[in-house]
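Example 3.2
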Amino acid sequence: MKPFISVENLCMDFNGTRVLKNINLEIEEGETVGIIGRSGAGKTVLIHLIRGIDQPPTSGRIIYHISICDTCGRIELGSAANSPCKRCSGGTLKLKDVDLWGEDDSVRRHLMQRTAIMFQRTFALYGNDRVIENVLRALEDTGYPSGKAVSRAADLLDEVRLSHRMMHIARDLSGGEKQRVVLARQLAKEPFLLFADEPTATLDPKMARVVHEMLKSAASSSSMGMIITSHFAQAIEDVSDRAILIADGEITAIGAPRDVIATFMKDHHDEEVFAIPKLGKTLIRCENLKKRYISVDRGVIRAVDGVDFEIAEKEIFGIIGTSGAGKTTLSRIISGILEPTSGKLEIQIGDDWVDMTKPGFQFRGRAKMYIGLLHQEYDLFPHRTVLDNLTDSIGLEFPKELAIRKAMITLKMAGFTEEKGRGILNRFPNTLSEGERHRVALAQVMIREPRIIILDEPTGTMDPITKIDVKHSILHSREEMDETFVIVSHDMEFVTEICDRCALMRGGKIVSIGPTQEIMDLLTAEERDIMSRAIKGE
């Protein structure tokens, strides 16, 4: 019996740079293959090519060994060959080898209809529709009988353990819940292959574990195969039958998940030592700060509920807590994006204390010029190069030579090596990995030379080794540029290693502020579970 998919000598170039190099791989029917590697290794490019997305490979072939109905054209797995077609009942399934990028577009489209994909950082939902309506739309797209659709939609929500949210508006769900709705929509297509590209990179560890369980359950309960990419070792170990390690566009290891993960993690170490800085005077002070919203479904939401804190110059201050604790709302108030409902928030600019609760150039507008924010849902200008994204696209106009110099300094501060930084300057964002785009977005914030930098979940799309690079970039920025950082995160390992102090939030309130390790001692059992899984890389 032939394998399900054969990848032969696959190569991919972007602007003269080879990002995939002679990839050879076989995938069996119903197999779950995990692809692990650092940000920028080529994981996303590979699965996009295997599914038939974007543009064809520079060279090489991807062969699907399938069966096709000789009457209606229905595509099934190769193992179903010579059996009657279940769709038309009159045809017979015949074996066929399909060269995915060598066939015409219509053949590739038909094959893609039998696969499904979960993109990283993209929930792809109808935000104003209810959860069950989102699943019903997916069933309608597949031509599922309308009389049976509601029952099938309810079954799918049961499968992803979301029946208790079926009447909620999709936009009001948590990140983990949204990802499970996405999974239900993809399962509605009854695919024989599901691609999951970093499906839990931006979720907190508890929600990531739930989604991992859903993916594993979905694959084991059917003949569906799955290809999952991740730079989190636990995700690969939890879900995969077999793992592949990609480094610099090449397969460097393949085999049992535990063995491949061990190879990947052997370079996961951090030996650089930084001096303990002398913090400056108080830079940010806050008293009884509140932010409330009115929701039709939930009434008054106290997103930030009377918080008090101070942050000193050159301090790295963490804000931690589980999803929904109010971390992101508080960070956006500090950055000047949101106006608080009540309370006091002041930032010192020069010799003046600026009132952030008041709009206008003399108040919030004045301080915002010196605050940089990298939030979870960042974006880059897709049709501009990395160099343009760091300069004239954001209003910074430098002579060409100075622009390159400034961009390179900032990219190195954001965790790129000299060689890698120069290699991406003239590339477009869609040719970068998610982790690389995240670091370019960080550089886009830092190149403006802000006094205060707010990072909302800065490590969500980063592999463990890149996290070390970014940690070093933050500490170097503090040493060399006297930067002050506010870091919002559920990654307890990262917060413990980098923050001088942190605030623990629960239900919109700050329950305690102090040295990071002391705050760890105040965590509940559930929060400790989340922390331990973050340290494992889930």
